[in-house]
From TrEMBL:
It holds the Pfam family DAO. Residues 4-338 form the FAD dependent oxidoreductase domain. This is FAD-binding oxidoreductase. InterPro entries: FAD-dep_OxRdtase, FAD/NAD-bd_sf.
Amino acid sequence: MVLDVVVIGASVAGLTAARRLATEGFSVAVLDPNPELVTAAIGHGVAACAHASTVATMAGAYGDGAAHEHVRRNLAGLEEIRGVAAAGALELTEVELHDHSLGVALDRELRRVQQLIAGGGAEVSLLTPELSSRACAGLRSAALLVDPGDYAQTLEAQTASTGARILHDVTVTRIRRGDGATEVAFRWNLAWSRDLEVMTAHAVVDTLGVSPWGAVAGIGQPQYVPALRLRGVAVPREVTLLAGPPVWLIRPIGGEVLLLGSKCARIQVQDAAVALSNWAATEFGATDSTPGQLIIDPSDHGRPVVGASAIPGGFYTRGNGRGELMNGTASGCYLAALLLGTGAARGVSLPWASKLRAGAGRLLKRRRPAG
């Protein structure tokens, strides 16, 4: 049997794309090298329409249109997160995002970024120093908070319930592109397992960068982010973004506070962790804390790294942000749109035979009596 789609990686991006495609009636399988939930349950669990620094950088590097598209994808991601949470009775908390990621910015700089974000359809306002805990101007918008592990579990359960087949603890060893389809060979991660299994699909969604296209789209080496959870300190009500270093994000997490440092190379992460701890002691008076770190995908100034081939059997990939809640969800939604041929992705999609079969399957499901 030739599947419609094989997704490589049970990341947030991969599971989101698989869930949307399987819901539309397409046959989907997900191959993941890690135990269940490991690939998706990462990140800080904050989702928002945009970060001011990212939008400003994108507009400067790629133009206003790219910044607007970035915001639109994030808004679609936010709606997807809300839908997953509602269907899974998962608790979401909505708070304000106080964005000072531009640093000490002039009013005209803030207004320029505010207009860019609003141009993508999001609601954002100026944050005056009087209303900010940082005593400097910034931007204010809404953010969603969720536990990354809980979200990963809910997302995977919903993806499986759509009929998508999810295989964990397997490693893709070969991808061979044929005429109208692609063979994906994989092996189970067991010491005694040597036999290869093969799946054939009309399209491959690669969120781990193991396909020929994915290797190119991977951009660079992973980046490291020191983290610190504080207890016994005043917990803010809002999420705050700073320009860093040593601190990039401050968020409430239950009765604790999570601090994230700035992205850095592996060789720099130890010094960055010390600087973060010193800042926490000075700023919060923190004496009870737990250190940690995130390993995240490389960044390209927020530019969506998505590639697709217009012929069946093509590769579709997201080169960064694949596991993190916001970027991963926005990526997964866009990858599904590519395969469905909807919105801005028209003209690059699954074959019509797959679409007709999926449509017939949806029709039969609607007509089938419940129970």
